[in-house]
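User: I'm putting together notes for a lab meeting next week and I want to include a structural view of one of the chains we've been expressing. I don't have a solved structure, so I'd like a prediction I can at least talk through. The sequence is below, exactly as it appears in our construct file.
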Amino acid sequence: MSLFDLSGKVAIVTGSSRGIGRAIAEQMAVQGAKVVISSRKLEACQEVVDAINARHGAGTAIAVPANISSRDDLQRLVDETNRTFGKVDVLVCNAASNPYYGPMSGVSDDQFRKVLDNNVISNHWLIQMVAPQMIERKEGSIIIVSSIGGLRGSPTIGVYNISKAADFQLARNLAVEFGPHNVRVNCIAPGLIKTDFARALWEDPERYKQSTQGAPLRRIGEPVEIAGAAVYLASAASSFMTGQAMVVDGGVTI
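Assistant: Thanks for the context. Below is the predicted structure for the 254-residue chain, given as structure tokens.
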């Protein structure tokens, strides 16, 4: 059996109607997992579900829309997954938001709270909803998609970076708590990836040049290149890894 085989596993991936989340869900399905596609809009989720089911067979994927800012929505996401597939083996906290761009002196309290609520507190909620069954089974993998922004300062996305740094510590702390039960918690820290979320940073030729000229690989990443890291962290290939931040950035932070 391949170390990366996910046959028989059930994975929830938030923010999976596009970009990194979609690529993660698609690649987990390739490895044999059942996947739950979730973002705010049902239509967008269903499009991904239809594509995955057409490729891997009916029942491989289901859509459960949820707004990560709503605790009730997240509980319904977990409940529907349990009702349909009977369990949750892998949780990927990928959805995030960044409603403010600029120096921290200009951020409103509401904007700051929204970033922390959506990028940290919602992850805490969702993890606490799935962890009990993983602990009971003595097996599970929780993956938080953070960012290399959490490793650096920035004059424009400092608030976002603070939330992503908090995700690193959330993973470390929960790894300590869950480790004795064989439940692992890790982060992926992507660099600049070609997604709609980062469109402003790669669509403009001048910004793209600035973003890539100091990168050893001289380019930005593709969503599927983050999906590879997620498959690794979800599978037996990473069974001795927990509490870590896996940087996938084309070498930018070195």
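A couple of points you could mention at the meeting. Residues 28 and 231 are 6 Å apart (CA to CA). The mean pLDDT is 96.

User: Perfect, that's what I needed.
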